[in-house]
Amino acid sequence: VPFMLLCFTAWQIGHLPPSHRFSRQHLFAHPLTGLLIAGAAAFLVFLPLGLEFYRRPDFFFEHAAEAFVFNEQVGGGSPWLAILRHTGRVIGMFNWRGDLDWTHNVPGRPVFDPLMSIPFLIGVVIWGRRLYNADDPDRDALALLGLWVVVMLFPSILSNDAPDFSRTLPTHPALFVAAGLGLTWIWGHAWLLSGTMPQWLGAATACMVLAISGGWTFYDYFVAFPQNKELYYIYDVDKQDALEFLQPMAADHQVYLSQLWAGHASVAFMLGDYGFKSLDTSDTIVLPPPGTGAVYAFPAEQQERAEFMATALNAGAVQTTVDPYGQPLLAIVRVDAPRLDQWPANLGPQQSNLASFEEAPTLLGMSANRLGQSDENALTLYWRADAATLRDLTSFIHLIDANGSRVGQMDKAPGNGSYRTPYWAPGERVIDAYIPHVSEPCAVGENVRVIVGWYELAANGVRRPRLGTFGDTALAGEMQLPVRAYPHAELAPQIRLEEQGTDSIPINLWGYTLHEADLQAGAPIILDLFWQKSMAQADEAATSAVEARLRLQTEETGFNLWSGVVNQPATWRIDEAICQRLRLRLPNEITAGPYELNLTTIDAVSGDEAQSKIGALTLQPSLRNYSLPTPLTPANALFGALVGQPEIALAGIQIGEQPPNEHTLPVTLVWQAQSAPTNSYTVFVHLVDELGQIVSQSDALPAGGYATNQWAPGEV
């Protein structure tokens, strides 16, 4: 709101002759016309910024609300008293005490020194008298300047830390009119104080005041002020000294500066001139291209991070530099080129999987840790830039369980956004740690496959395709998800059970979920068991080990389905539960009929046991086929997840005749399970010509959707 223009327009209207206030003859000279023209011009100038404020109102209101005197933290619950107090401080800033902030002022120095305060106060009196004089030709100009000063003092009066010179700065062009009026009066009227003094004395006095005050001000701001130690840090001279110290190292080393400083406005402005790169090393380590050494520079407050980097890279002792005041300035880790051509010990990938992407970094491998440090919640991916790219890419990881379901994921810009792909130099290797969110509570404790890729957010999230193969993802490796407990409210077992067992068993079954399955001999089933502490276990520590057995029983016989140890995290509360997913397989020899599913829990220390009846299952007659068809052209090809451990054999193939006038060829593949496959595989068939080119293909689950992880050993 243009308060100053509105008030000045009201002033002018109030002092117009009555005949001019609403006369069309004086329309173009009317103050309202000037206000509209000035307002329209101001609106056009403000419009681009105003549109941004409209889109992001927090830009306009957030800081203002934080500093506003009616904010409880600023006004202390008494805003009007605070306004009165701030008004006194703002009035006193001219001659008594100024801003105390080192970034704005010599702490406490008023706007005018004691000598210049004399003409300033004289000028204020003259200003007031001339405003009162209706015949003064400069009355309107003085009114405008006075309103200018008063209105622009309110940002400091109505905010915290009054007086704040950064907020009162707009008053200065008008404010110094008072000092000018006072000096002018001294120049022309000082001789009136004594009739015997010569008239030139006034001019000499005004010049003397101006010269002494100017020298005083120069000394305060340009001699004494710069000597203060605080200014060295407040005005970022320490950061400039740090960059100049690092500059010689950039001749044969790539300098990576911690983002804590590199993200600072002053450093970011200078960083490009030095050829340094910004890097947040909390989850990321960057190794330069082969043949180039590296310098990792941290501000002194990140000494611990520098120590970690030195240990991870086997770089020896951290070099520490000091500033001119003897305070620690930088912690530097320097590694020469030969030591970085290979992966540092304990930092290389545990699982090497090379996968290239189009215009995106190449995957080199994965480790189930955090930058070489033990952390069961994290994984680390290893990337390499094979070429420069302008694409700002985001990496994604998907955690895939044995059924092919996504049970966790994470999307992350490299270096937590501090080292985006356009900044990567060809040959650089980026070691990036991830802590994925696990969305399936019952997947904890399971082995999952880590699938990774890249997408471009600015291009509507389009993924980067693989090079040399199909698809847009790659297998980075496998990891076991850590066991953790969840609050009861976040878990939803299919069947809830009353607490069973005794207090001698520290864990009992809270509920279970039996996933839909084909209940026949040899069929896989998935059973989720939800464990909770017994009421006697009130602390958060893990209990003693508990073993469990799961059996299918009838009155005549029984079958062991599973035995093992109950999963436990290091800590969990009595109002939390743990889901343990069991991937079981019904025995091949089991017959159809009703069965009871029973659970036995055993305290591994005391040997005490507790029995729990989970529920009843009815098994159907087996429909599995174990006989090979005839005639059959033998193939004898073996497939498996691991070399030397075949899961499935291609026993043979049957090729039918091509129907007339159709572009199809009936091909029957005969598969036989060599063991119980743990994964669901897709079968692809390619028809190739004499040059090896694909002329036709088919990709599908086998047997019309009969997933391979449902197959029993020997099944055809």
Write structural notes for this entry.
The mean pLDDT is 87. With 716 residues, the chain is an alpha+beta fold. 27% of the residues lie in helices and 28% in strands. Strand 5 and strand 6 (328-335) form a beta hairpin. It has six domains: 1-55, no CATH class; 66-226, no CATH class; 236-340; 351-480, Immunoglobulin-like (Sandwich), CATH 2.60.40; 494-619, Sandwich (Immunoglobulin-like); 633-710, no CATH class. It contains 15 helices and 30 strands. The strands form seven sheets. Strands 10, 11, 13, 14, 15 and 16 form a six-stranded antiparallel beta sheet that branches. Strands 2-1-4-6-5 form a five-stranded mixed beta sheet, with helices on both faces. Helix 1 (3-14) runs antiparallel to helix 2 (31-55), helix 1 runs antiparallel to helix 7 (139-157) and helix 9 runs antiparallel to helix 10.
**Helix fraction by DSSP (H/I, runs of at least 4):** 25-40%
Gyration radius (Cα, Å) is 40 Å
Q: Determine the N-to-C terminus distance.
A: 82 Å
Main beta sheet, described? 6 strands, antiparallel
Supply the number of helical segments.
15
Low-confidence stretches: none
Give the amount of beta strand, in percent: 25-35%
- Overall, the morphology is elongated
Could you report the average pLDDT, rounded to the nearest whole number?
A: 87
Topology, number of strands: 30
Q: Total domains, how many?
A: 6
Q: What structural class do helix, strand and pairing data support?
A: alpha+beta
